[in-house]
């Protein structure tokens, strides 16, 4: 792409990001007044499945896969989602406000909130029952940074100055030289987890606020999952929410082609960790507490449950997926199964369904492979801004 098209793109993004979609109403002081009604006759022996879930969807952490799980669960029990309006996030990177929820009326109460947002506890909490379960996903910040750099780099103008074949390495050699904390979209390239969770991602790592924020996350979230141990995380989630195995089966969504994922090792890994020091502290804390939870759950029991989840995923793969694995965007036959791509390279994989799937599984298979945008559209969300952007990109071939 030429300098000019970068510039044109930048202007487009700028205009787009300043349009006041959905943000016009002032926040209302009222709380969620009555809990949404639970469906009757829920099957389960010793506990009742929990239906009220807030998923703080972080970026580049396998969160699209979890989103798919939550959308399916919500459909299964006919739950009420708090969706954004116009596009598929809550006016990110601005803070979440309840007035951003599609068709929000004061006093409204929802079962599930699961789209990208910059977290605001009080605003989110006002929309769900006091007993709602809060969950989120973290990932090793060095790898998260790498992923974010490749996925979002193009929409962070100060990276356009980077030259050479390995922009990431160049950046990490002297991040302070390139990074502009006030730059457009700068938040994507430093301590993105801290930012998404609603904190100042430019804090001095030695500030006592850092520890205070980390403890606050621990207080507010009932489960902090880890991308690296996604299956173990899902087993803990299933236990916490009293769900069934069928509720957590999944196919990996929004993953990159393996050959396009550079492994950050040695010096670069060290630099990326140091550059994202707040996230590193956060991750270290929750990596430790995660393993305490696994310990409490029982190591052997965990191994058994993970094995049965993987068996079930593989069984579903054999039932649903043509060729039994993910394919490049260009090989996905149906537009309805085409995932959203980062700008530049089409590296995000998707799926083709088998031609003949028995009636019993056809719905489930289709849901499991449906990307976020299409799934939300199916659930009645009007994503006109996202779609418009999709067409503009298609037209400009970016
Ligand atoms: C919240 O949970 C407590 C104990 O688990 C229960 O007694 C209470 O009824 C629940 N409240 C709501 C609004 O569901
Ligand atoms: C997370 O904790 C595990 C178990 O203690 C440890 O082996 C691993 O190195 C930790 N990961 C990171 C990135 O700190």
From TrEMBL:
Leader sequence segment: 1-26
Annotated GO CC locations: Golgi membrane
Alphabetized InterPro entries for the sequence: Gal-3-0_sulfotransfrase, P-loop_NTPase
Main location: Golgi
Entry annotated with the keyword Acyltransferase: no
Pfam families named among the record's database cross-references: Gal-3-0_sulfotr (PF06990)
The keyword Lyase appears for this protein: no
Subcellular location: Golgi apparatus membrane
Gene Ontology biological process terms from the UniProt entry: galactosylceramide biosynthetic process; myelination
Family annotation (SUPFAM superfamilies): P-loop containing nucleoside triphosphate hydrolases
Membrane topology: Single-pass type II membrane protein
Annotated keywords: Glycoprotein, Golgi apparatus, Membrane, Signal, Signal-anchor, Transferase, Transmembrane, Transmembrane helix
Gene Ontology MF terms: galactosylceramide sulfotransferase activity
PANTHER family registered for this protein in UniProt: GALACTOSE-3-O-SULFOTRANSFERASE, GALACTOSYLCERAMIDE SULFOTRANSFERASE
Family the entry assigns: Belongs to the galactose-3-O-sulfotransferase family.
Protein name (Swiss-Prot/TrEMBL): Galactose-3-O-sulfotransferase 1
Naturally occurring in which organism (per UniProt): Vombatus ursinus (Common wombat)
């Amino acid at each position: 792409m030429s300098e000019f098209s970068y510039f044109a793109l930048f202007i487009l993004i700028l205009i787009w990001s300043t349009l006041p979609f959905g943000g016009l109403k002032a926040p209302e002081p009222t709380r969620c007044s009555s809990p949404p009604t639970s469906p009757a006759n829920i099957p389960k022996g010793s506990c009742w499945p929990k239906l009220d879930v807030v998923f703080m969807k972080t970026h580049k952490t396998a969160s699209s896969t979890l989103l798919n799980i939550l959308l399916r669960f919500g459909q299964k029990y006919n739950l009420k989602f708090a969706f954004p309006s116009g596009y598929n996030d809550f006016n990110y990177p601005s803070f979440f406000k309840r007035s951003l929820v599609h068709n929000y009326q004061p006093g409204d109460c929802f079962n599930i909130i699961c789209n990208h947002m910059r977290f605001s506890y009080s605003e989110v909490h006002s929309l769900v029952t006091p007993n709602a379960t809060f969950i989120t996903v973290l990932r090793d910040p060095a790898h998260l940074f790498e992923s974010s750099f490749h996925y979002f780099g193009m929409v962070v103008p100060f990276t356009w100055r980077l030259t050479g074949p390995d922009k990431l390495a160049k950046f990490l050699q002297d991040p302070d030289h390139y990074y502009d904390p006030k730059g457009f979209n700068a938040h994507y390239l430093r301590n993105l987890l801290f930012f998404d969770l609603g904190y100042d991602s430019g804090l001095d790592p030695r500030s006592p606020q850092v520890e205070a924020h980390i403890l606050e996350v621990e207080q507010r979230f009932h489960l902090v999952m880890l991308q690296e141990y996604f299956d173990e995380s899902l087993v803990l989630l299933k236990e916490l929410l009293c769900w069934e195995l069928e509720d957590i089966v999944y196919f990996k969504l929004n993953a990159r082609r393996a050959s396009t994922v550079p492994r950050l090792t040695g010096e670069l890994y060290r630099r990326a960790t140091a550059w994202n020091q707040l996230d590193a502290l956060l991750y270290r804390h929750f990596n430790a507490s995660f393993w305490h939870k696994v310990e409490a759950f029982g190591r052997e029991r965990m191994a058994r449950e993970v094995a049965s989840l993987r068996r079930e995923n593989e069984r579903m793969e054999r039932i649903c997926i043509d060729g039994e694995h993910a394919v490049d965007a260009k090989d996905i036959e149906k537009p309805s199964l085409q995932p959203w791509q980062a700008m530049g390279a089409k590296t995000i994989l998707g799926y083709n369904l088998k031609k003949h799937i028995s009636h019993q599984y056809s719905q489930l298979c289709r849901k499991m492979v449906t990307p976020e945008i299409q799934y939300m559209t199916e659930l009645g969300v009007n994503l006109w801004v996202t779609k418009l952007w999709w067409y503009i990109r298609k037209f400009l071939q970016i």
